[in-house]
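Table S7 (text form). Paired inputs.
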Amino acid sequence: MSWRKKAKTSLKAYAFLAPFLAVFSAMVIYPIGLGVKLSMYGQRGARMWYIGWENYSRILQDSLFWNSFKIPLFLLLVQVPLMLILALVISFMFETRKRGGALYRFIYYLPYTIPGIVSGLVWSYIFSDSMSPLHPLLDALGSGSLLTRSNAPAILLVIILWQFTGYTAFILYSSLIAIPREYTEAAQLDGAAHWQIALRIKLPLLKDPLITLFIFNAIGAIQVFNEPWMLGDLVVLPTNYTPTMYIYSSAFAQGRFTYASAMGVILAILTCAISLYVLRTASKLILERHT
């Protein structure tokens, strides 16, 4: 192929990508660059001045910011593994169910289609002191209020599991049905039971989608905002209950936009670091098993 044909092909490719690149640059790259730029400035009202890395040095000593990672850490260590396990069980149920499978998949997927704000409102109503439909049961059991600050992490766990487990199961089910039937048929001829096929053949083949889903859900756990924000209307939660809540409060309640931008940059760096660590660790484990 001559250089003219190569240049013409490259030009067509860039022309095809141009609309996406323009929108991506305007909606993603520019806001990120502007956020990094603002993080280098001090602010008092509408007046801003360059201060370099001073915001970042203040954040390193800000105990409120670092204490806000307790809930994301709880979700990362408890909610994400628990949701993946439940999603695996549900996806295997999807695969084995012959009648009504599409209906059950739709029912499990439905919570994911509900916006986070709406689901937060619904669950706030369920756990509220005055309107909860569970109050007759609680009164019979002699229990107190459901929605307290100490119970808030468990309630967040319930809400997030309800909202995202079905979606995660649907993704795993899509990977399950993509596994060639020859694997399972050969195992059945060798006398393997259904649970043996699921655990020893299909589960190892799901390692790639499981790693991807773990990373996506870990990012969601670190950046959780909607659910605790909605619960904050019914129970008093500190402004630094999660990092995103603290960033939002610093920017829009206290007017510290440049300081909030610096916290957002640090949160993004931590998120990328965790994702890269999981990817590299998983890649090393996969290579060790194949060698």
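Next pair, protein 2 of 2.
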Amino acid sequence: MNLSPSPVLSNSFRMETVGMDALMVRLFDAIDEAHMPWILAADKALRERLGEALIDLVPSYTTLLVHYDVETLSQIEASRLIREALQNLQPASTAAGREHRIPVWYDDSVGPELSRIAERRNVDTDEIVRRHSGRDYCAFALGFSPGYAFMGMIEEALATPRLKTPRQKVAAGSVGIAERQTAIYSMRSPGGWNILGRTAVKLFDRERDEISLFRPGDRVRFEPISREAFIEQGGDTTPLEER
């Protein structure tokens, strides 16, 4: 059941038990950028209502994972507080999300799928870069690795399935797409996304006040830069290994 935007979600959302001390709150069933104001509003309301009994809260595309202290709350009590928090919920303003400009060196040596996608679309690589960097993306959720943000939605013309065989090593800073999502690898790791380029921006830094650069609800735009500018910013030009 897809939920249309409504000022009252208390009778529409679903709760699912995912552990002895965790409940999944499902507001929607389909990914849609229009849902983000509701996710953000629910995040704020749940944090305020559960207070010190809340251990962790993880918002995602359509859900919020609520991890609560079982020494403070029973599951029945946690469920009651969640329902109270979401009663008469109003969407949050997306203006609260921060804006980020991420410089990216788009190049075949660090983005092997750049030319491949261009060939499949019967355009040149400049057109792929123009389309990928030509819009703002919403950071829907953090996960996979520290600081890694799932962002969307890319235009239909760029939508590309994940690689059939994932790479064993994808360099930190690699910018990729999968289906209608885009993301930046926050650290070197295995991965199956289609890589278009690389950024020198650090997404995860324990020395910062906020160790993750992105938060759900932030807006991100990619800005093409030259190889020289990428090097000046401290970028690593080591070619991405083939699978």
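The chain has two domains: 14-95, 97-232.
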